[in-house]
Amino acid sequence: MEFEHKKMQTVIASEQYLVRLGVKTLLNVIGVESDLHEADSFEELERLINDVPDLNYLILSDELLPKKKQDCLKDIKGSCSLCKTIIIGQQKIPGCVFEHFILHSYDRKQVVEELQNFFQESESTQEKNDSCTLSDREIDVLKTVALGCSNKEIADQLFISINTVITHRKNITGKLGIKTISGLTVYALMNHIIKAEEVR
Amino acid sequence: MVAFTRNNKMAEVILRDYQLLPIISRFGIKLGFGNKNIEEVCIDRNVDLAFFLEILNSYHNADYYPENHLSGFKADVMISYLTNTHSYYLNSKVPHIELFIDKMQKEAKKENSRNIGLLKQFFNEYKIDIEHHFKDEEKNVFPYILDLEEALKTNNYSTELIEKIKKEPIEVYERNHESLEVKLADMKNLIIRFLPPLSCEDDCERLLTELFQLECDIEDHTRMEEKVLIPKVKMLERKVLEYYGI
Predict the structure, then answer these.
(1) Residue-range domain boundaries for chain A
(2) CATH number of A136-198
(3) What is the CATH topology of the domain spanning A8-130?
(4) What's the CA gap between B79 and B129, in Å, rounded?
(5) Complex confidence, ipTM
(6) For B52, left (φ over 0), alpha (ψ -120 to 50), or beta?
(7) What is the pLDDT of residues B136-145, one digit of tens each?
(8) Most Cβ neighbours (<10 Å): which of B2, B100, B136, B246?
(9) Which among B119, B183, B194 is the nearest to A180, CB-wise?
């Protein structure tokens, strides 16, 4: 069922027990509901990245990383591309592939805010993907479908392949739950994507 | 799930599954059956018992498959039932739905009234679709089936009939039998997800209920045509060809 959300998976990685404990407590405070996994060494972290399916979040203290920190982080990003990462450290790592940081100098309020941003932002982007908001390109395709164009005509008009047209159409139907062309036309008219005069 | 039998009391059947109400009225069976059982009611109303039981059970339980009973009734009984069902959809269900759409359109504010106008147009297209679909069955498919049955009864086969079995057997109809529910599902989706809220929630709720019911009923109807009628016609076609030694 679509409604059964999978539980989030979060890894907390730090050599220091107190840091891991502190992060867990704060996650509890801001109400993040997630399965938590802890890593106290880089090897353990690598193992978790490989073993935990669908890892969503990684909270990583940078003292855990071996020497070439930037490269390590790049590797981490490469091996779990869908996972969001926030770094805890003395200072921001220059040229880092991740944009979220918690600095050691932050006070409680700053840390909580940073964590909240980190978790909220991705929740809202996930919602966006689920919901019925169509992308600009999908709206272009919907417009032509609603006007009664064939896949070939759409492909020519939008300079894309027929396969891409088919994929867009599948995604549109998936997002809107509307299968027939006349149903899509009604949707497009309701939302002023096309005008009644244009319909063939 | 236990199937209904000829000895079940008619009243108990309806009390157990009220969704069967429109089915019995399609057979011309009226309420007030006292303590009569299914068989007695059928005799009273001159309804084919074997067929009535098949229909009742198929609607009551979607998994019910009347494999062994296919020969228990004649195709003409089934065709007259299917034709009755067509007119039930067109003369009773469709006008009901149109009535609610009209009511909603009258009560809605200007912008939303335009939206409901679009739905109305959409439903109108659907109506034309199903009218066309039913007409095709009644004009082309059903008479062919009746011809088959008549030919077997009288042992009198016309060459046209044999040609038709060879060139355009029921399998062609089976392949092209299109689904009538997809547009109804779209209509529900448009109302549930995308129509801006209305002040007349009652009418909207009733409209949706009607749409859900019609969708269910048409699903059952299609299942009946595909699982009961078509296998039966295939059997008739085989018998005719066998008789002719083809």
Answers:
(1) 8-130, 136-198
(2) 1.10.10.10
(3) Rossmann fold (3.40.50)
(4) 20
(5) 0.81
(6) alpha
(7) 999 999 999 9
(8) B100
(9) B183
